[in-house]
């Protein structure tokens, strides 16, 4: 068993290895295969196999800089998605205590407390003042 492990380690020298994008492609491909087999739709399973093949291609690739750049794009994309999701979730949780407005001048999003009647709101970004009912 130890000899096979060392041979595999020698084989992987200079290769890219597993990263977040490869893991996503691998597990996503497996999920696609299982899902479309349960739905009895074999064409969709081909997408799963394609994702798995791309994942293994990335893992065994020797072009480390290109694979690193692809992973970096994937990570920035997912980080942006998570940031947008967190903004929407936080706004949803704060909807009972705060009202949200956009500044008419610079369109900056503003948060003001609810149930204060008509108030004069000053935009902290452009110093524009406007009156809104909360």
Automatic annotation (TrEMBL):
The chain crosses the membrane at residues 21-37, 43-60. Keywords: Membrane, Transmembrane, Transmembrane helix. It comes from the Bacteria. This is Zn-finger containing protein. It comes from Carnobacterium antarcticum.
């Amino acid at each position: 068993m130890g000899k096979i492990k060392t041979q595999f380690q020698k084989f992987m020298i200079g290769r890219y290895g597993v990263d977040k994008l490869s893991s996503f492609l691998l597990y996503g491909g497996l999920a696609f295969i299982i899902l479309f087999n349960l739905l009895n739709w074999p064409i969709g399973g081909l997408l799963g196999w394609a994702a798995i093949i791309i994942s293994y291609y990335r893992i065994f690739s020797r072009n480390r800089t290109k694979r690193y750049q692809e992973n970096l794009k994937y990570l920035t994309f997912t980080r942006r998605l998570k940031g947008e999701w967190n903004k929407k979730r936080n706004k949803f949780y704060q909807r009972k205590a705060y009202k949200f407005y956009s500044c008419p001048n610079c369109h900056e999003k503003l948060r003001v407390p609810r149930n204060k009647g008509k108030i004069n709101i000053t935009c902290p970004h452009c110093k524009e003042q406007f009156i809104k009912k909360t």
